[in-house]
Write a structure and sequence with these properties.
Order of helices and strands of chain B: HHHHHHHHHHHHHHH
Largest sheet of chain B: none
Number of domains of chain A: 2
Structural class of chain A: alpha/beta
Helix content of chain B: over 70%
CATH superfamily of the largest domain in chain A: P-loop containing nucleotide triphosphate hydrolases
Helix content of chain A: 25-40%
Radius of gyration of chain B: 21 Å
CATH class of the largest domain in chain A: Alpha Beta
Shape of chain B: flat
Oligomer: heterodimer
Distance between the termini of chain B: 25 Å
Chain lengths: ~325, ~290
């Protein structure tokens, strides 16, 4: 179990992490989500004891990372942003070194290495020099390194970067598998990835916690509203009065091309207008060709939550966030 | 610690560096051994080693440049520093590995007095004291190189800096003799050196108060000594500079004198730079 209290990291005058507090219970997968430069890697580096916090404390299984670093680090497996591999070793040599470094008893080393290789799909490359491996394989070797020694806590910084779609799915399954026995923290700037794997999501922006909740509950943190899109056969002058008669409509837009009219109606989240629209159209004898509820997906939530933060801080720029959303869109298509 | 030690040794001998280091060293020692001891028939191996000492300027940077700088660059230090091994043990493992590579060279040279004994009378105690002293001198230089490698993440920079520092240390005796022994020279030299230290603290800590306080106190103290008790400063430049001359200490060993002060000096030098290396690694956490 991980307890983080009031974590602050200052670089000169820049606050990279701003009073973060959270706990991760045993067996949970926590996802850190945030645009680049939000403070995800910094937080992970502090939790694993690579860098120190300016203020606040981190304890792993009751061991403070600063007071008892060796005890605390024993129960952590960490994959940093850049996989910490020695390029002049073969995969197997490297994992052997890591096992020895983590003080895995001699008898258990071989089976543990074998199982890490199998879990990360690196059996085929076990005898190759790491410098000859592609980015995706290096990433997998990095993950294999993190799970060696069976640490109770596994911390993965952007574990699927550089992997192809098939590998991403494999690694996601691996993470779900790992969560059965371990506590897992992973970071990503890709929402679909977090939502596919994690129990709880922490959205971080500018070093601050924006939202921390389960994936299902995330939409509640928005200015909730319901939106419905209807395609009706008819002309605009026929449809418009009909829609205006409806109660509880907050926003209305119509677009007609002579034969069909596309209507978008927005209401409060508690109100579902679909039945009313159906009966109104039925009474007027206008056939409905299409009707769909416009739900907001997680990408929208992410964008909205991190953007509302921006009104108080300038970084990151709008352009960066747009890039993020494009990346997000790419992956969610897979 | 053992894991890191083994990994380092493997890195030296899997790549060409370890072999090259040993080969170069043995070649140079061999040339002098052949000329001085075999050809001209000196029965003391120490003379050859004394001449070979110059090669440290090239070989120390070669073997220590990557030792920590490479970890910093490849970010593998993240693996080491987040593993359940203390920084002290990490550095010890690495340093012992370098010493071991150097130790291979010294072990081989241990056979040379035996070879000489085939051709005449050889004072073994004197010869092995010279080899032991040479080993200690090497350990001191290697500790220095390890420290320099820890403060940068560029191998090339570490190599050049180590080369320059070892060279200066080698020339230190000569440099020291250039200065007059007058108290006035001592005052100027120390004032300048303390200014450099103040500049360094400014670069490292960026604290006006600490740097300012250090500057005022140190410059005040040295000026006070000059005006109140100038005799204290006479000849001190030469003495201080000589302290940094790692190589000067070796002269006693060559002359067959096993001076405890020299042994203590080398061990102090190693401990100093290895603990500085540990501090440099720990300081990274606070950046």
């Amino acid at each position: 179990m991980i307890e983080v209290k009031d974590l602050v990291k200052k670089y000169d005058n820049h606050l990279a992490v701003d009073h973060l507090t959270f706990t991760v219970p045993r067996g949970q997968i926590l996802g850190f989500l945030g645009p680049n430069g939000a403070g995800k890697s910094t937080t992970m580096n502090i939790i694993t004891g690579y860098i120190s916090a300016t203020e606040g404390s981190v304890s792993i299984n009751g061991h403070d990372i600063y007071e008892e670093p060796e005890e605390a680090k024993k129960s952590i497996g960490y994959l940093p942003e850049q996989p910490p591999v020695y390029t002049d070793m073969t995969v197997k040599e490297y994992l052997g070194f890591v096992a020895e470094l983590k003080r895995v008893p001699k008898k258990e080393r071989e089976p543990q290495i074998a199982s890490a290789l199998a879990k990360t799909g690196t059996v085929d490359v076990a005898k190759r020099l790491i410098k000859h491996l592609s980015k995706g394989y290096r990433q997998r070797v990095g993950i294999a390194q993190a799970i060696i020694g069976n640490p109770e806590v596994i911390i993965l910084d952007e574990p699927t970067v550089g992997l192809d779609p098939v590998q991403i799915i494999e690694i996601r399954d691996l993470m779900k598998e790992l969560a059965k026995e371990h506590t897992v923290i992973l970071s990503s700037h890709i929402l679909s990835e977090i939502s596919a794997v994690c129990d709880t999501v922490m959205i971080i922006n500018n070093g601050r916690l924006v939202v921390s909740d389960t994936v299902e509950n995330l939409p509640q943190h928005l200015n909730a509203q319901n939106s419905c899109r209807v395609v009706i056969k008819g002309t605009e002058d026929l449809v418009k009065p009909l829609m205006e008669e409806l109660e509880d409509v907050k926003e209305l837009s119509l677009e007609g091309d002579g034969e069909f009219v596309t209507v978008t109606v927005t209401s409060d989240s508690q109100v579902d207008l679909r039945e009313d629209i159906f009966f109104a159209c039925a009474r007027a004898g206008l056939p409905i060709y299409e009707m769909s509820n416009v739900t907001r997906n997680l990408e929208d939530i992410f964008l909205e939550l991190t953007r509302s933060e921006e009104t108080t801080e300038e970084l990151p720029t709008e352009g960066e966030i747009k890039e993020e959303s494009e990346e997000n869109a790419d992956v969610s298509d897979l | 610690m053992l894991a890191i030690y083994k990994k380092e040794l493997r890195a030296y001998f899997n790549s060409i560096i370890g072999w090259l280091f040993i080969a170069f060293f043995l070649a140079f020692i061999g040339i002098y051994f052949f000329l001085d001891n075999l050809y001209y028939g000196y029965t003391h191996f120490g003379y050859s080693l004394y001449s070979v000492g110059l090669i440290f300027i090239l070989l120390v940077p070669m073997i220590t440049m990557r030792i920590i700088a490479e970890e910093n660059k490849q970010k593998t230090d993240q693996l080491l520093l987040t593993s359940p091994v203390s920084v002290e043990k990490i550095i010890m493992g690495k340093y012992l590995a370098v010493i071991s590579v150097f130790g291979v060279v010294m072990l081989i040279t241990c056979t040379y007095p035996l070879i000489m004994s085939l051709y005449g009378e050889v004072n073994f105690a004197m010869n092995y004291a010279a080899i032991g002293g040479f080993f200690l001198m090497g350990c001191a230089y290697l500790a220095l190189g390890t420290f320099i490698s820890a403060v940068t993440d560029s191998q090339a920079l570490a190599a050049v800096a180590t080369f320059i520092v070892v060279l200066i240390s080698y020339l230190m005796e000569g440099i020291a003799s250039l200065f007059s022994t007058s108290a006035r020279t001592a005052w100027l030299v120390f004032a300048f050196l303390l200014l450099l230290v103040a500049l360094l603290t400014w670069i490292m800590m960026k604290s006006k108060i600490v740097t300012g306080a250090f500057l005022v106190i140190s410059q005040g103290a040295i000026a006070a000594v000059y005006f109140l008790k100038p005799t204290l400063l006479e000849g001190s430049v030469v003495n201080v500079f000589d302290w940094f001359s790692v190589e000067a200490r070796y002269a006693d060993f060559v002359n067959g004198i096993l001076n405890v002060a020299d042994v203590v000096y080398y061990i102090t030098f190693v401990v100093l730079f290895i603990s500085l290396t540990v501090q440099a690694m720990k300081k990274k956490r606070w950046n």
